[in-house]
Every structure is written in structure tokens, then in C-alpha cells.
Design goal:
- The protein has about 260 residues and is of the alpha/beta class.
- The protein folds into 2 domains: about 10-95 and about 175-255, P-loop containing nucleotide triphosphate hydrolases (Rossmann fold); about 105-170, no CATH class.
- It is built from 9 helices and 10 strands.
- The strands form 2 sheets. The chain has a 6-stranded mixed beta sheet with strand order 6-7-8-3-9-10, sandwiched between helices.
- Helix 3 (about 110-120) crosses helix 4 (about 125-140), helix 3 (about 110-120) runs parallel beside helix 5 and helix 4 crosses helix 5 (about 155-170).
- The chain is globular and about 50 Å long.
């Protein structure tokens, strides 16, 4: 009997997203001297680091909310570093972001919030929009909540609606910006479980910014530590635990490391 081929590693593929020698500053405040990071199809990578080190800046540069000062950012083989707004739209159709505060429109219902990007991307007629809204709300455990306003939702529910909106357009990449900040332990576990289950169900590539190391070790494939204006460590959970990097070990043990002024 011929031996079966081993399951291919995602790291044998070309990166789906690549940051190379990216520099970014806000006035005298240098965020990145050399942001270099490859992200591979289907993986979940978690970016950790002290407050104000620029973790969320990474996500915002990828989708054009912030521009890099120099260096290269590629997504799906396209250089996005200096793309004009109209030319960013094809990238944004393939990348969705769950913002830290969920970023829901308070004047719109849950259904209207989720339909907003669907209409932007011309998903279909009203019947198809209603079907998609019901489908994604079921995925995040909020069936039947279409007519509620954000003011009627708890913090955890708002995050789940934001996540439903993010996955509604069937993105290939999901960006999570501090998805559990401000939530109670029950909702933290619920959001972490959703990230893990959606990763398996949708087979998307996920980039998660978080301070929560318990969450990190729940769902991540690799960890990227942002320190001294660069990614000083990138590796698997086992590699992180075995690393001699003292700053990394402080994070794993629950330490905060050196904190800078918040720029995220």
C-alpha cells in the first residue's frame, strides 16, 4: 500500500497577506520601524503587545484606514500600501473587520446594520438580504433579533451583531480588534468560542488583536508579539511557551510588559 500524503501545511502556501519593512509614525511617535509579518490562508494569528504599541494600527493599514509611511503591504497578491479609496474596495470585499466597540449604527435595527455592507456589495434583492441576515444571526446565537435596536442590546450581544455583520459578506479574512474588551467572563468565553467555531465552519483567515492570553491560547495557530516597534516573535503556541524571550513570557504569565502611550 502506498503511504498517504501528509496533510499539507498552510505555511507551505504563499502568504495571503504580507507586511514587509513597513514604517509608520504619528508625528514624533514612531509606531513601526520594521513591521514584517506573513499571514497564511486559513490560519488564525493573534497579535499581542503592550497598550499603545500599534497592534490595531496593523489592521487599519491593511484595509486602508491608515496609510503606511513606507514599506510594502500586500493582500491577495495586490500591493495596497498607497491604493486610492476606489481601488481599495475589491480588497475590502474580501476582508471584514470587527471593531473594538462593534461600531453599530444606533439609529438602525440589527437587521439594517447587517444589511448595510450587503447593500454596499450588492448582495441581492430584499428577500436574499433577509435570508442572509437570518442565517448569520443564527450563526452567532442571536436568532430573531432582527428588529432590535443597538440600545436594547448588552455589550456581548452588540459584539455578536458586529460579528454577524462582519461575516455576512462571506469574507476570506476577518480582522478582530480586541473582540472581548469590556465583556464579562461569560461573554468573553462566548465570543472566544464563536471565533473558534466560525474559523472551523467558514475556513477563513483570522487576525486577532487582543490582550487576553487565555483567549489567545483558545483559538490561535500562531502568536505575533509586537515589541520595540517590530514583531519580535512570531511562532506557534508551543514555540511561544518554549521561547526564552522574557517579554513574551511576561505576557503568557499575565504580565503587561512596558506600556506606551495609547495610539490604537
Amino acid at each position: 500500500m502506498m503511504p498517504t500524503d501528509p496533510t499539507p501545511s498552510p505555511y507551505d502556501q504563499d502568504p495571503i497577506i504580507s507586511f514587509s519593512n513597513v514604517k509608520k509614525a504619528f508625528g514624533p511617535k514612531v509606531i513601526y520601524e520594521d513591521c514584517t509579518l506573513d499571514i497564511y490562508p486559513g490560519e488564525t494569528i493573534t497579535i499581542i503587545g503592550g497598550s499603545g504599541t500599534g497592534k490595531s494600527v496593523t489592521l487599519k493599514m491593511l484595509i486602508g484606514l491608515l496609510s503606511a509611511d513606507s514599506g510594502s503591504i500586500k493582500a491577495f497578491g495586490t500591493e495596497v500600501t498607497h491604493l486610492a479609496e476606489p481601488k481599495l474596495l475589491p480588497i475590502r470585499r474580501r476582508v471584514a473587520m470587527l471593531f473594538q466597540g462593534a461600531a453599530l449604527f444606533d439609529s438602525l435595527t440589527v437587521a439594517q446594520n447587517i444589511k448595510y455592507p450587503l447593500r454596499e456589495h450588492r448582495w441581492g434583492n430584499e428577500k436574499k438580504l433577509d435570508e442572509r441576515v437570518a442565517e448569520v444571526l443564527e450563526m452567532v446565537g442571536l436568532p430573531g433579533s432582527q428588529n432590535l435596536k443597538p440600545s436594547a442590546l448588552s455589550g456581548g450581544m452588540r459584539k455578536r451583531v458586529g460579528l454577524a455583520r462582519a461575516i455576512a459578506i462571506e469574507p476570506e479574512v476577518i480582522l478582530y480588534d480586541e473582540p472581548t474588551t469590556g465583556l464579562d467572563p461569560i461573554n468573553v468565553r462566548r465570543i472566544n468560542g464563536l471565533i473558534l467555531s466560525l474559523q472551523k465552519k467558514l475556513n477563513v483567515t483570522s487576525i486577532v488583536v487582543t490582550h487576553d492570553m487565555d483567549a489567545c491560547f483558545t483559538f490561535t495557530d500562531r502568536i505575533a508579539l509586537l515589541h520595540n516597534r517590530r514583531f519580535s516573535f512570531v511562532g506557534t503556541q508551543d514555540e511561544a511557551r518554549a521561547s526564552p524571550d522574557r517579554y513574551l513570557q511576561e505576557f503568557i504569565a499575565g504580565g503587561k510588559g512596558t506600556l506606551d502611550e495609547d495610539v490604537e
